[in-house]
């Protein structure tokens, strides 16, 4: 049992629209009609349906997290941030591994792209992908130490650059809040309701456990999009939290 209301919880669920085209995404949106969750547009849908689709989401009043995980030289990220700010997205992200200067460049891009009176998008840093296990971190990526140590280092760097928060696993929320403060936002994918397929995710928790850790937003894809009845799936998730 939590103190969160149904509306609080719903506004903190980001549904990953991981679809190949706008038509498929529209099918899900129709099923979730009237549920005031965020929608997350990632690279698959953005590369296929592009800015037009995002603009149409914004026209219809959706809160949009554009998950394109920018990672390039600072000048290019600055330009990318300017462009997505003009699109009116509410949240977008950049890889913390791109370094402090690159993250600062994203904030400069927002300044350039922001229309007078428009709300500033929130920028969050990607720490370690939730599919990254300890073994992959050490043996393939070549970073020493634990996943949590790597995540905390990235979170501190993102905060030093002026970002509002990070994407991380729900397993790292407590440590991130301890290192960066409670108001530093955590967005957590790697969410699996009890009994759901884990798929390629590695560092996971149930939605209720993630909120109990103090996360600000949960990102949920396949447990909703892959369900026979997506509306019933999100309703069950909301019910499991409030
Ligand atoms: O289907 P599933 O619930 O695993 O979807 C998780 C979503 O969150 C995907 O769209 C994935 O790209 C995204 N994501 C992630 N780990 C990150 C950042 C984003 O899984 N660190």
UniProtKB/TrEMBL annotation:
The metabolic or biological pathway listed in the UniProt record of this protein is: Pyrimidine metabolism; UMP biosynthesis via de novo pathway; UMP from orotate: step 2/2
Q: A Gene Ontology molecular-function term?
A: orotidine-5'-phosphate decarboxylase activity
EC number assigned by the record:
4.1.1.23
Answer whether the UniProt record assigns the keyword Lyase to this protein: yes
Q: Name one Pfam family in it.
A: OMPdecase
Question: What GO CC terms are in its UniProt record?
Answer: cytosol
Q: The Orotidine 5'-phosphate decarboxylase domain covers which part of the protein?
A: 12-237
Binding of substrate, residues? 18, 40, 67-76, 130, 192, 201, 221-222
Q: Which residues form the active site?
A: 67, 69, 72
Q: Note the SMART domains from the entry.
A: OMPdecase (SM00934)
UniProt record, GO biological process: 'de novo' pyrimidine nucleobase biosynthetic process; 'de novo' UMP biosynthetic process
Any idea which UniProt keywords this protein has?
A: Decarboxylase, Lyase, Pyrimidine biosynthesis
Record's signal peptide: none
* Lyase listed as a keyword: yes
Catalysis performed (reactions): orotidine 5'-phosphate + H(+) = UMP + CO2
Protein function = Catalyzes the decarboxylation of orotidine 5'-monophosphate (OMP) to uridine 5'-monophosphate (UMP).
Q: How does it assemble?
A: Homodimer.
Which PANTHER family does the UniProt record give?
A: OROTIDINE 5'-PHOSPHATE DECARBOXYLASE
Can you name this protein?
Orotidine 5'-phosphate decarboxylase
From which organism does this entry originate?
A: Paenibacillus pectinilyticus
Q: Which gene encodes it?
A: pyrF
């Amino acid at each position: 049992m939590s103190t969160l209301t149904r509306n609080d919880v719903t506004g903190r669920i980001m549904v990953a629209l991981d679809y190949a085209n706008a038509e498929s995404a529209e099918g899900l949106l129709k099923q979730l009609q009237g549920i005031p969750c965020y929608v997350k547009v990632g690279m698959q849908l953005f590369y296929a349906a592009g800015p037009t689709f995002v603009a149409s989401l914004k026209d219809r009043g959706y809160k949009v997290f554009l998950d394109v995980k920018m990672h390039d030289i600072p000048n290019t990220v600055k330009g990318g941030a300017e462009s997505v700010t003009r699109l009116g997205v509410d949240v977008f992200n950049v890889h913390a591994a791109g370094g402090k200067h690159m993250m600062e460049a994203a904030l400069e891009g927002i300044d350039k792209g922001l229309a007078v009176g428009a709300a500033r998008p929130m920028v969050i840093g990607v720490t370690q992908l939730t599919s990254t296990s300890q073994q992959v971190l050490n043996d393939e990526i070549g970073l020493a130490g634990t996943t949590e140590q790597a995540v905390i280092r990235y979170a501190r760097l993102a905060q030093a650059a002026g970002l509002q928060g990070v994407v991380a696993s729900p397993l790292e929320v407590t440590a991130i809040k301890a290192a960066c403060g409670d108001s530093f936002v955590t967005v957590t994918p790697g969410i699996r309701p009890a009994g759901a397929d884990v798929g390629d995710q590695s560092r996971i928790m149930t939605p209720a456990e993630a909120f109990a850790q103090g996360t600000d937003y949960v990102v949920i894809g396949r447990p909703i999009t892959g369900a026979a009845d997506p509306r019933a799936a999100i309703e069950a998730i909301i019910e499991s939290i409030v």
